[in-house]
Write a structure and sequence with these properties.
alpha+beta, Alpha-Beta Plaits, disordered C terminus, 176 residues, 3-stranded antiparallel sheet, 7 strands, two-stranded antiparallel ribbon, elongated, 20% helix
Length: 176
């Protein structure tokens, strides 16, 4: 019985040592990446389009959206708590005027949790700050049987991307 346990431990150690010689399966997070067509980005708000119906707050399963009364405005306007938001997009889908929409940033940095709770005015002016703000070049994650995922550069901003149009290959990148 004890000999069987020792054998299993030695097998586990052998597997671990074998993996030390291999390339890592996990790659560093890309500095800038391409957001795909069906990716739900950060939820943003255009107060000029909002009619104050509160459907967004009613449908939010995480209770991330709260209605606020603003001085001089007859109906309340939504604010968001990004620490609660699960980015399900229900609020975007139910908004009758398109005041809520998905941005083109799929990740963002919030250094202080208090910065994640936005009033309607703050949300209207909010510009998500992606992790890779102003760094690197656009890349696309591509499945690879050997390493899992690898990142391939997307064409420069002046050349057509994989769709053959002039979108230029994703977000971010150097401007010069």
């Amino acid at each position: 019985m004890a000999g069987e346990r020792v054998k299993k431990h030695l097998e586990a150690i052998a597997v671990g040592l074998a993996h030390l010689a291999r390339r890592p399966m996990t790659l560093r997070y890309p500095e800038v990446y391409e957001v795909g067509e069906n990716v739900r980005g950060v939820i943003l708000f255009d107060m000029a389009k909002c009619i104050g119906c509160s459907l967004c707050a009613q449908i939010c399963p995480a209770r991330a959206i709260k209605m606020y009364r603003l001085p001089g405005v007859r109906t309340p306007r939504p604010g968001i708590d990004y620490t609660r938001c699960i980015f399900c997009g229900f609020c975007v889908d139910i908004c009758p005027t398109g005041a809520l929409y998905h941005g083109d940033t799929a990740d963002m940095i919030i250094e202080d949790p208090s910065e994640a709770v936005l009033t309607p005015i703050e949300w209207d002016e909010f510009k998500p700050r992606p992790w890779a703000e102003g760094k690197g070049r656009p890349v696309r994650a591509v499945p690879d049987e050997e390493v899992g995922l690898k990142y391939e550069p997307v064409g420069d901003r002046s050349s057509p991307d994989r769709h053959g149009d002039e979108r230029g290959g994703g977000s971010g990148g150097d401007s010069g």
